[in-house]
Automatic annotation (TrEMBL):
<feature type="binding site">
    <location>
        <begin position="4"/>
        <end position="8"/>
    </location>
    <ligand>
        <name>ATP</name>
    </ligand>
</feature>
<keyword id="KW-0460">Magnesium</keyword>
<dbReference type="GO" id="GO:0046872">
    <property type="term" value="F:metal ion binding"/>
</dbReference>
<dbReference type="GO" id="GO:0030272">
    <property type="term" value="F:5-formyltetrahydrofolate cyclo-ligase activity"/>
</dbReference>
<protein>
    <recommendedName>
        <fullName>5-formyltetrahydrofolate cyclo-ligase</fullName>
        <ecNumber>6.3.3.2</ecNumber>
    </recommendedName>
</protein>
<dbReference type="GO" id="GO:0035999">
    <property type="term" value="P:tetrahydrofolate interconversion"/>
</dbReference>
<dbReference type="Pfam" id="PF01812">
    <property type="entry name" value="5-FTHF_cyc-lig"/>
</dbReference>
<keyword id="KW-0436">Ligase</keyword>
<comment type="similarity">
    <text>Belongs to the 5-formyltetrahydrofolate cyclo-ligase family.</text>
</comment>
<keyword id="KW-0479">Metal-binding</keyword>
<feature type="binding site">
    <location>
        <position position="55"/>
    </location>
    <ligand>
        <name>substrate</name>
    </ligand>
</feature>
<keyword id="KW-0067">ATP-binding</keyword>
<dbReference type="InterPro" id="IPR024185">
    <property type="entry name" value="FTHF_cligase-like_sf"/>
</dbReference>
<dbReference type="InterPro" id="IPR037171">
    <property type="entry name" value="NagB/RpiA_transferase-like"/>
</dbReference>
<dbReference type="GO" id="GO:0009396">
    <property type="term" value="P:folic acid-containing compound biosynthetic process"/>
</dbReference>
<feature type="binding site">
    <location>
        <begin position="133"/>
        <end position="141"/>
    </location>
    <ligand>
        <name>ATP</name>
    </ligand>
</feature>
<keyword id="KW-0547">Nucleotide-binding</keyword>
Length: 187
């Protein structure tokens, strides 16, 4: 099996070829399917990443969360410690552009304790039907999920579902993966 770094390049290149109209439509369908989940409906505080093309669009999901009165927590990476914290945002103006074109909450945003997060939307480049994922290489989510007890859901396009991925001892699977055509129960 290829090294993780080679797989990341391969899968990123494949996703980059996604047609914009297909991307928008499939992101919309995935967000609708997410909203139907019991875990989503019952969660008060949802941790969610700020997507970049070609990841499934989470910006529209965040708008919906605000519209229905849910707390939105977005990740802030702490490179010095290789850890990640989640901070509440109530507006996109509470974000700043950091490295690699990623958006993170500004420093004044309130930190949300891990135990207060009911649901985490976990990003990734590729996933297995068992819930294992190939992330973007920083290991931030792997470390964060080690002691996380709430629901873990990933959003993916069907072409991101793979038969096999390299799995390591520290990898934590997600509970559910939502694609435009499937709800994969992993737990």
């Amino acid at each position: 099996m290829m090294e993780k770094s080679e797989l990341r390049k391969k899968y990123k290149k494949s996703l980059d070829t996604l047609n914009r109209c297909t991307y928008e439509q499939n992101s919309y369908v995935i967000s609708k399917r997410l909203k139907e989940l019991k875990e989503f409906k019952e969660a008060n505080t949802i941790a969610i990443t700020l997507s970049r093309f070609p990841e499934v669009d989470t910006w529209q999901i965040i708008r919906h969360l605000w519209d229905i009165g849910k707390q939105v927590a977005v990740p802030k990476c702490v490179p010095q410690t290789k850890e990640m914290v989640f901070k509440q945002i109530t507006s996109f103006t509470q974000l700043e552009s950091v490295y690699f074109g990623l958006y993170e909450p500004i420093d004044v945003a309130s930190e949300i304790k891990k135990t207060d997060l009911d649901l985490i939307i976990v990003p990734g480049l590729a996933f297995t039907k068992q819930g294992y994922r190939l992330g973007f290489g920083g290991g931030y989510y792997d470390r964060f999920l080690l002691k996380y007890e709430g629901s873990k859901i990933s959003l993916a396009f069907s072409e991101q579902i793979k038969q096999n991925l390299p799995i390591e001892d520290h990898d934590i699977p997600v509970d559910i993966i939502i694609t435009e055509s499937d709800k994969i129960i992993c737990r």
